Amino acid sequence: MTLRLDTLPNGFRIVTEHMPGLQSASVGIWVTAGGRHERAEQNGIAHFLEHMAFKGTKKRSALQIAEEIEDVGGYINAYTSKEMTAYYARVLSADVALALDVISDIVLNPVFDEREIEVERNVILQEIGQSLDTPDDIIFDWLQEASYPDQPFGRTILGPEGRVAGFKREDLTRFVAEHYGPDQMILAAAGGVDHDAIVAQATEIFGGLKPVGAPTVQVATFGGLERREVKDLEQVHFALAFESPNYRAPDVYAAQIYATALGGGMSSRLFQKIREERGLCYSIFAQSGAYEDTGQITIYAGTSEDEISDLMQLTVDELKRAADDMSDAEVARARAQLKAGLLMGLESPSARAERLARLLAIWGRVPDVDEAVQRIDAVGTSDVRKYAAEMAGSRAALALYGPVGKAPGLEAVRKSLLA
To answer: Fewer C-beta neighbours within 10 Å, C or N terminus of the chain?
Structure first.
């Protein structure tokens, strides 16, 4: 693998990794602007903008954008997260220049046609409606709001219906002007790529743009509230969150290993105890996420109204027990799962390009994969037990959805954790 990085005078960064033997490549633009960069009145605009990028530019219609990539057998897509918006394509190596031309066009030259805005507004409202009809989807938005109340980090990516219904063309152009500068963009490509050719093309396209400066970001503060939504569903959907380390914190890998051992697979504690031994649910898992200044460990399960109290108590019991008897074998298994997930994912040029962009945004450089593996291997059982004890004593947030009358509240969970 050959990793190369160039930065243009205006701050635009270009990072590539050549993967020998591959006949395809992934190329994209990652903009360091996402949901948490929105003001309250802008909530949902980053995601709306992502949609509108595909609705036509100064030289391509929406159909032409799709056709130019698909005519060569490629694939183009985008996503919006809390901290980034990405526009990317997967194509054959011979078509990288075409893909970069199309992606740069949709990022830099969207026309924001008024009729297309109305069409896409309705699409996004349908997307919001679909999420509201998907309990094991919407509950995570509500958990986020309960974890980080009244702040950008706690708001949904999609935005509320009322906001989305009112966005105008000038709202889109304002967000672009504030955040879509070359100094807030990263061009990442991996696979069968030619770094020098990409730099030459990118210099021509992006080199003359003016920087916009670093965005102002409100620090995320974990609030730890409860949200309980009553609805006549077959199951109670339960989600519990604890603040965990940000991605620069020394114990970020201890948190990830802990979450994996707790609920990261069929051999995990929660799966074995609550599903396999007690049969209280079909789905239960724990996961860990890390961000600029915070992180979350999240536990989710769905169960019947009559079983929710037992399920929640067993979950709390496992959280407390992990601090005392997390075994060497469990920690070793979780380490192996993390390393395998990392290394297997990097066999894909799309995953590798995303890794390049994300790490460059975090560190200003791209650490070698071996560095991450060494940090995972350095986490011992005592580190995980220590982290488990600290987390069990920290603040939590709770979201419940469905026939929740018999479900304990957050205060009961806290008391049980501290007992």
So the answer is: C
CB 224 within 8 A of CB 232: no
Which tokens hold the place of 297? 């460990």
Closest by CA to 395, choosing from 361, 418, 374, is 418
Q: What is the 3-state secondary structure (H, E, C) of 67-127?
A: HHHHCCCCEEEEEECCCCEEEEEEEEHHHHHHHHHHHHHHHHCECCCHHHHHHHHHHHHHH
Give the containing element (helix H, strand E) for 185. Answer: strand 185-191
The whole-angstrom separation of Cα 275 and Cα 307 is 12
Torsion of CA 390, 391, 395, 400, to 10 degrees: -160
Nearest to 380 by CA among 290, 258, 293: 258
Checking 407-412 for CB contacts under 8 A at 24+ apart, the result is: 407/228, 407/236, 407/238, 407/308, 407/309, 407/312, 408/309, 408/312, 408/313, 409/226, 409/228, 410/224, 410/225, 410/226
CA distance 407 to 379: 36
Q: Which of 76, 72, 83 is nearest to 26 (CA)?
A: 76
Tell me the C-alpha distance between 98 and 60, whole Å: 13
CA atoms within 13 A on the CB side of 330: 28
Distance, in Å, from the CA atom of 18 to the CA atom of 193, rounded to the nearest integer, reads 6
Nearest to 85 by CA among 45, 126, 26, 130: 45
For residue 24, the 8-state DSSP code is E
Q: Which helix (H) or strand (E) holds 364?
A: none
Give the DSSP H or E segment for 300. Answer: strand 295-303
Q: How far apart are CA 327 and CA 265, in angstroms?
A: 16
Question: Which residues are annotated as catalytic?
Answer: 50
Supply the mean pLDDT for the chain.
Answer: 96
The string of pLDDT tens digits covering residues 130-178 is: 999 999 999 999 999 999 999 999 999 999 999 999 999 999 999 999 9
Contact 245, 375 (CB under 8 A): no
Q: What is the pTM assigned to this prediction?
A: 0.94
Q: Of all residues in the chain, what percent are helix, strand and coil, respectively (each to 5)?
A: 50, 20, 30
Q: What span, in angstroms and rounded, lies between the C-alpha atoms of 379 and 255?
A: 10
Could you give the CA distance from residue 3 to residue 353 in angstroms, rounded to a whole number?
11
Distances 31 to 63, 64, 323, 325, 357 between C-alpha atoms, Å: 24, 23, 40, 43, 9
pLDDT digit string, tens, across residues 72-107: 999 999 999 999 999 999 999 999 999 999 999 999
Residue with the two structure tokens 């949901």: 35
Q: What is d(CA 245, CA 367) in angstroms, rounded to the nearest whole number?
A: 19
